Amino acid sequence: MTLLLADDHPLLLDGLRNVLSDLPNVELMPPVHNGRQLLDVLYRSAVDLLLLDLNMPKIDGMTALKQIRRDFPAIKIIIFTSYDQPQRVREAKALGAMGYLLKTTDAPTLKMAVQQVGEGKLWFPMLQTKVLEPPGDAFMQKYQLTKREIEIIQQIVGGLTTRQIADTFSLSEFTINAHRRNIARKLGIDTPVGLVNFAREQGLV
C-alpha cells in the first residue's frame, strides 16, 4: 500500500515518517508540501492512501479533497489537522474522507487509524456522540466501567489530549487524569494501542 503525506511543516512530516516507516506492507512516498504539488503527484503516481492536512498553501485541504474525490475516487483519505470542530469533521466525511485525526494524536493511534482506513474501514471517533452499551452485564461486572469512563475512552481513542477531553466535559485536567488512572487500573491496560484494541473489540467506538 502506497502512503502519501501532505503537509507544509517539514518537521511534522519527518516525525510522521519516523512513526509510520515500520508499518508492514506500507510504502511511504516522498511527502508533498502544498495542494498544487499534491495534485501534480496524484496525476503522475499511483497512491493508495493519503494523509492530508487541511491548512496548506496554494490549494487548501478541503478544496483538494473535493478534486481528489472527483478525479481519484479509489484513493483512501485521512484528514490530519489541528481543527477539532465537529462541523469540520462532518464536512470532511461528507466530501469523502475516510478518517479524521488531530495532530495531537499519539503514535499508536495514528498507526491504528492508517491500518484501519487502509483496510477500507472508517475512522471518525470524534463523531461518536453517544455511549454504546457494553455487551452485557458480564462486561460491566468484570470491568466496572462507569458511563463517564467509557466516554473518556472514546475521546482518548479519538486522539484527543487530556486538555481537550477536559474542555469537552467541562472538567479539570486533574479529574480527567484521575479517570485515566482508574481506567488503566480497571482494565489492566497501560498503552494507547491496547486501549484502542479494547475499545474496538468491545464495540465502544
Automatic annotation (TrEMBL):
The keyword DNA-binding applies. InterPro entries: CheY-like_superfamily, NreC/VraR/RcsB-like_REC, Sig_transdc_resp-reg_C-effctor, Sig_transdc_resp-reg_receiver, Tscrpt_reg_LuxR_C, WalR-like. GO terms for molecular function: DNA binding. This is Response regulator transcription factor. It holds the Pfam family Response_reg. The keyword Phosphoprotein applies. The modification 4-aspartylphosphate is found at D53. It comes from the Bacteria. Residues 2-118 form the Response regulatory domain. GO terms for biological process: phosphorelay signal transduction system; regulation of DNA-templated transcription. Residues 138-203 form the HTH luxR-type domain. Keywords: DNA-binding, Phosphoprotein.
